[in-house]
Prior knowledge:
Blueprint: E1 11-22, E2 26-34, E3 45-46, E4 49-51, H1 73-77, H2 84-102, E5 107-108, H3 120-135, H4 140-146, E6 150-151, E7 157-163, E8 172-180, E9 194-200, H5 202-210, H6 218-227, H7 233-241, E10 247-248, E11 251-253, E12 256-258, E13 281-285, E14 288-292
Parallel strand pairs: 1-8, 7-10
Antiparallel strand pairs: 1-2, 1-4, 2-3, 2-9, 5-6, 7-8, 11-12, 12-13, 13-14
Helix pairs in contact: 5-6
Amino acid sequence: MLTAATxxxxxxxxxxxxxxxxxGKTLEVFLARRHESQSFMAGVYVFPGGQLExxxxxxxxxxxxxxxxxxHPQVLLQDGNLTATxxxxxxxxxxxxxxEETGVLFARNSSGHLIDFSNxxxxxxxxxYRKSLNMGDIxxxxxxxxxxxxxxxxxxxxxxxxxxxxxxxxxxSTRFFLAEFPYGQSAVTDKDELTSSLxxxxxxxLQMYIAGKIAMMPPTIKTLEEMAEFVSLDELFTxxxxxxxxxxxxxxxxxxxxxxxxxxxSIEKYKQPVRTGETSRFLMKGxxxxxxxxxx
Length: 296
């Protein structure tokens, strides 16, 4: 039985699941490989994202964000413990990190249109911005201000909330968002934190994992399993908006992990009603995480 090795507080973070329709209206997802030199999940394929920064809650950013009457971050994240500023900062973090790691930017220009990088001059200018941002030579807010952009957090749909188990030294409390890949843009990894990448259907990604072609961790595997049930983006986003979002902190067990809806999950703070027939645990077999349902 694995036991807790740390009492570290998980760091707040956000990740974005980029989605598109391709190859005859088939749903595809963007995955990128973490650099081998990374101290956390080296070489593993993940959705782009990263840690929340203080600047993500900068009040100055409020003037650079589109506002809609029905956009309420606290309500959408389904977390009453968050302040309005903190809830919005997860969206800003998700947008910033996606731009830093892939070059994709969820924003509209001064004419009200989604920013389009098909223009070579604009693409080159934002490539310089991205490099400067990653080097710490400019802030994300400064880029948005200089380009007179309006960020569009409403394009992100909250999907899930995963918390790293206490047995892991580097812990994160990560909000997962869905986002449709914006027209006129391209996803290119930063070659620093993320190296190679691929667009792939959820089912194909899972097959590649089982075949040992790519490495993934349980949150990514579980998410891909759920998305593999959908073909249409509309159906996926509609289902996502109806989801019950709650903290998912896997509980260690012999050779594996139990999820909150597993019948034998016992961390009272995170326990959820049992969902019979659904995979609810991960077992480590042959060096691979394999999801399975509970069996008496």
